[in-house]
Amino acid sequence: MTEPTAKPMGALLPGIVDSQTGVTVSPAPLMTASASLDLTTLPARIDDETMALLREISTAVLPMPVSCDDEHFSRCMKSLDILPRRADDTGGPLRLKLYKRKLGGFENGALSYLVDKGLERFQFFPSIKECLDLLRAFPNRDRDMGRRGHAKHLIEREQQHRLHDTILALQGREFSQTEIDALPAAWKRIAAEKMLLWAWPDGRFTVRRNIDAMDADEAEAERDRVRTMMDEWADIRAAQAASDDQREKAA
């Protein structure tokens, strides 16, 4: 008696197994740290590590959607065909055309995902509606765009929190010059508008001390320092004007 020959997995599941190598094809992109980050459960304040992941999401280049090719679609349908059919399911070429019309706009990876998850979930060959319901869980461009926008919103929200914290710290004059130099340029300009920093003509920013919180001697010394600073500003502006004149003459 001849024993039945076992069929290779590629023959049984052509939609998710490469017939040339026999290696299972990944039905979806590998998950990175940013891809697996749940944006809906993040705390009100976000640390630097998570901010880096959010920036990765917000700047990700979204691939243009490409519809699955006919060969891959046929392979995936054959893979699902190992499932038993319902009593009223007669199959046939017309049915396959309807499935192609409704599902053919999805990319190859989405159809492989349908096979991979469908064989686990479906008891019978799935209806078009069951296929579409399952494919909603596959990452697509629209969801990626929404996720990217959500990440940008979270970044902006955290930046506003950090700007607020910075302004409070500057009001308490708690920043060293090194820390001031490290602040984003836009934040320094905002702080200067709030009279917390001096905005120098050459682009520097320095702390603006609160004279009202000083005694009489300290306040007078600070006024002298400010007068000296203004003289420096005048020299800087004069040098800039002379440089501009020279460039105009050279042109």
Describe this structure in words.
- By secondary structure, this protein is an all-alpha fold.
- The protein has ten helices and two strands, in the order αααααααααββα.
- The chain has a two-stranded antiparallel sheet.
- A hairpin with a 5-residue loop joins strand 1 (197-199) and strand 2 (205-207).
- Helix 2 crosses helix 7 and helix 3 (70-80) packs parallel to helix 5.
- Residues 1-30 have low confidence and may be disordered.
What key phrases describe this protein's structure?
2% strand, 10 helices, mainly alpha, disordered N terminus, two-stranded antiparallel sheet, 56% helix, 251 residues
Instruction: Give the CA-CA distance, first to last residue.
Output: 99 Å
> What fraction of residues sit in β-strands?
under 5%
Question: Residue-averaged pLDDT, rounded?
Answer: 84
Please outline the major beta sheet: 2 strands, antiparallel
Low-pLDDT residue spans: 1-30
Which structural class best describes the helix and strand composition?
Answer: mainly alpha
Q: Any idea what the radius of gyration is? A: 32 Å
Gross morphology: elongated
State the gist of this model.
The chain is mainly α.
Blueprint of the fold:
Elements (H helix, E strand, L loop, with lengths): L8 H4 L35 H11 L11 H11 L12 H11 L4 H14 L6 H8 L5 H31 L5 H6 L2 H9 L3 E3 L5 E3 L8 H35 L1
Antiparallel strand pairs: 1-2
Helix pairs in contact: 2-7, 3-5
